[in-house]
Specification:
With 235 residues, the protein is an alpha/beta fold. The protein folds into two domains: 4-145, Rossmann fold (3-Layer(aba) Sandwich); 154-231. It is 53% helix and 11% strand. A five-stranded parallel β-sheet has the order 2-3-4-1-5. The chain is elongated, with a radius of gyration of 19 Å. The two termini are 19 Å apart.
Length: 235
């Protein structure tokens, strides 16, 4: 889990060392405005050297919103942009906000770019739930969970901590108390992700399983409690 301040330091370090990856998925519950502001500041820094949201239009960044246009035509235009050499920046950066709303053909088109990216290309996908993206696409990008800034409500965080310490029977009881409240359930999942990300290397298998099960819950008519119990089986 990263705050915006921590993310800024990480990207400064990656830029300085030349280890910036070709693509990142930035996600997190309640972080929509913060992460968009961050990437705007970041691309302005790439082009002007200043960590701020610039007033002028940048030459080497392409920012779009999948809520407005999320189809294959968007990616075709973006591909042409990425294959051009940067004019003022070390990178040509494509930023897609709400990328979890991209159509499947559009996601496949981005995957094709990510498989053999132009040397100077950088793709930033901003999403709320990365598990909605196609698994092959997710595997080509580094995922970063961003804390939204506002604290998770105390009851949600308390339930998550209780859940981790509870017996299987008590865990089922806790899940039943929130399973039919969509907002409460999303807050619980967000709290669990935040807790697990404190040691993401050790907890990565659980995180991966949780995201997979959460995808099934959101997309299909499945038993939510059984899915979540399976997700947390190994913790």
């Amino acid at each position: 889990m990263s705050s915006i301040a921590e993310l800024k330091k990480d990207f400064q370090r990656l830029l300085k060392s030349g280890n910036l990856a070709h693509g990142y998925i930035l996600f997190g519950h309640g972080s929509e405005e913060n992460r968009l502001d961050f990437v705007k500041e970041f691309v302005n820094h790439l082009e002007t050297g200043k960590w701020e949201i610039g007033e002028r239009t940048l030459s080497d960044s392409f920012i779009t919103d999948a809520r407005i246009e999320g189809g294959i035509d968007l990616v075709r235009s973006a591909s042409k942009f990425l294959w051009q050499k940067p004019a003022l920046s070390p990178k040509r950066t494509l930023i897609i906000d709400y990328a979890d709303l991209l159509t499947v053909p559009a996601q496949n088109a981005i995957l094709k770019i990510a498989e053999e990216p132009p040397q100077s290309a950088l793709i930033l996908l901003l999403v709320k739930h990365p598990e909605v993206l196609l698994p092959p696409l997710r595997s080509r990008f580094q995922s970063i969970y961003i804390h939204g800034g506002a604290k998770i409500k105390a009851p949600d965080s308390k339930i998550a901590k209780q859940f981790l310490k509870a017996t299987p029977a008590k865990r089922r009881e806790l899940l039943r108390s929130i399973i039919d409240d969509e907002k409460e359930l999303e807050n619980f999942i967000a709290a669990m992700i935040a807790i697990l990300h404190k040691d993401k290397m050790e907890n990565w298998p659980v995180l991966k399983e949780l995201l997979s099960r959460w995808t099934s819950i959101r997309q299909f008519n499945v038993n939510k409690i059984l899915q979540l119990e399976a997700a947390f089986l190994n913790i």
